[in-house]
C-alpha cells in the first residue's frame, strides 16, 4: 500500500467504497506480522510502534534479536521452508551493547533447524552422531546465512544527535530496497537514554509515512512511589493483577513492581506508542534441556492492548520456549 500511495495517493483514496470496505482493503494491504513468542499474541502490522519494557536481564534485547531473525529469514529457500519474512531490519543501538555473535548464533540455529526439518520430511537419513555435515550442506547453510545478514542493517548511536542522524539515514534507505527487500522492521534498543524529544518522534513519523514498518523499542522501567501520568498503562493492568493474582499464581513481588512502575517518557512519546508489553524476571527457575542446567523464568504481559493474561517463558540458545 505504501508503494501505491507514494506513486498516486489520490488514486488510492478515490475509490468509491464504504468505510468497512476501505478498512478491509487497508488491512489486506498491511497483512499481520507473525513474531516469535511472546510477541505473537497481539496482532501487529506495519506502522505499529511496540514498546518492550522490563528490567535488566528480562529478555528485551533477546526478543529484538528473535524478531530480527524472523524478519531477515526468507519464507522459503531452495525448497526449504523457514517461515520468515525475507525483509530488511534496521537495528539502532542506543546502548552500545549489541552482540553480533548472539544474533549469528540465533540465525544459524534457525537455519539448521529448518534444514533438519526438511530432511525429516523428505525421509533423508539423520546426520551422523558426531553432528558432522557434508560440505554441500555447510555451503548451503553458509550461503543462506550470508544472504540473511545482508538484510540486517546496524547503527550505533551514542547520543541524541547521532540518533536523529541515523533516523534520517533510515528514511533515505527506505526509498530503495536492500537485497531485494525494503526495510520492514526498525528496532531501537535502549536502556539508559531518556532524551526522547519531539524531533525524534517527528523523524520516526516521517519514516513511517515513507515506508510503513514495524517499530520495536526497548525501555527500562523506573520503580518508585509517586504520581504517574494519565497514560501510565501499568496502573490499568495492575488493577487486573491485584484482583486475580491468586488464581494466576504470580508472586506478590512481581505485583508490587507492576504497581510502582512509573512512566517517565514524555507525553509525545507515550501517545506515539501503539502497543506495550511488560517483561519481568521471576525468582523461579525451570529445567533446561541439559539436566545440569536451570534457566530463569520470565513473564510477559500485554498491557496495550490489555490481554488480561501473563505468559511464562524461558530463553534458550535457539529461541524462546513458552512454559505451560
Describe the protein in words.
One of its GO terms (cellular component) is Rad51B-Rad51C-Rad51D-XRCC2 complex. InterPro entries: P-loop_NTPase, XRCC2. It comes from Sorghum bicolor (Sorghum). It is a single chain. With 324 residues, the chain is an alpha/beta fold. The protein has one domain: Rossmann fold, CATH 3.40.50.300. The chain has eleven helices and 13 strands. The chain has helices at residues 2-7, 9-13, 19-29, 60-72, 100-121, 135-149, 160-174, 198-210, 233-248, 252-259, 267-272; strands at residues 49-53, 76-77, 80-81, 88-93, 152-156, 183-189, 214-219, 222-223, 261-262, 275-287, 294-304, 306-316, 319-323. The strands form three sheets. The chain has a nine-stranded mixed β-sheet with strand order 5-4-6-7-1-10-11-12-13, with helices on both faces. The chain has a two-stranded antiparallel sheet with strand order 2-3. It is globular, with a radius of gyration of 21 Å. Residues 1-6 and 225-260 have low confidence and may be disordered.
Amino acid at each position: 500500500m505504501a508503494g501505491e500511495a507514494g506513486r498516486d495517493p489520490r488514486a488510492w483514496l478515490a475509490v468509491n467504497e464504504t468505510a468497512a470496505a476501505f478498512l478491509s482493503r487497508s488491512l489486506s494491504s498491511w497483512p499481520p506480522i507473525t513474531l516469535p513468542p511472546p510477541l505473537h499474541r497481539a496482532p501487529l502490522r506495519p506502522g505499529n510502534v511496540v514498546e518492550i519494557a522490563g528490567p535488566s536481564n528480562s529478555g528485551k534485547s533477546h526478543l529484538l534479536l528473535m524478531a530480527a531473525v524472523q524478519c531477515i529469514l526468507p519464507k522459503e529457500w531452495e525448497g526449504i521452508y523457514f517461515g520468515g519474512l525475507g525483509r530488511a531490519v534496521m537495528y539502532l543501538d542506543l546502548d552500545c551493547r549489541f552482540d553480533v555473535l548472539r544474533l549469528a548464533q540465533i540465525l544459524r540455529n534457525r537455519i539448521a533447524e529448518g534444514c533438519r526439518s526438511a530432511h525429516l520430511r523428505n525421509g533423508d537419513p539423520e546426520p551422523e552422531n558426531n553432528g558432522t555435515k557434508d560440505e554441500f550442506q555447510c555451503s548451503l547453510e553458509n550461503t543462506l546465512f550470508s544472504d540473511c545478514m545482508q538484510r540486517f542493517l546496524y547503527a550505533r548511536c551514542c547520543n541524541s544527535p547521532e540518533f536523529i542522524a541515523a533516523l534520517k539515514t533510515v528514511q533515505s534507505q527506505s526509498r530503495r530496497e536492500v537485497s531485494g527487500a525494503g526495510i520492514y522492521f526498525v528496532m531501537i534498543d535502549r536502556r539508559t537514554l531518556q532524551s526522547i524529544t519531539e524531533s525524534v518522534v517527528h523523524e520516526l513519523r516521517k519514516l513511517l509515512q515513507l515506508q510503513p514498518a514495524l517499530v520495536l523499542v526497548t525501555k527500562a522501567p523506573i520503580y518508585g512511589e509517586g504520581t504517574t501520568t494519565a497514560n501510565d498503562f501499568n496502573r490499568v493492568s495492575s488493577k487486573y493483577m491485584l484482583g486475580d493474582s491468586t488464581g494466576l499464581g504470580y508472586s506478590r513481588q512481581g505485583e508490587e513492581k507492576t504497581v510502582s512502575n512509573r512512566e517517565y517518557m514524555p507525553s509525545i512519546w507515550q501517545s506515539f506508542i501503539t502497543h506495550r508489553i511488560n517483561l519481568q524476571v521471576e525468582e523461579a527457575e525451570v529445567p533446561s534441556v541439559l539436566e545440569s542446567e536451570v534457566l530463569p523464568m520470565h513473564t510477559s504481559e500485554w498491557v496495550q492492548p490489555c490481554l488480561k493474561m501473563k505468559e511464562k517463558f524461558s530463553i534458550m540458545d535457539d529461541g524462546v520456549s513458552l512454559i505451560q
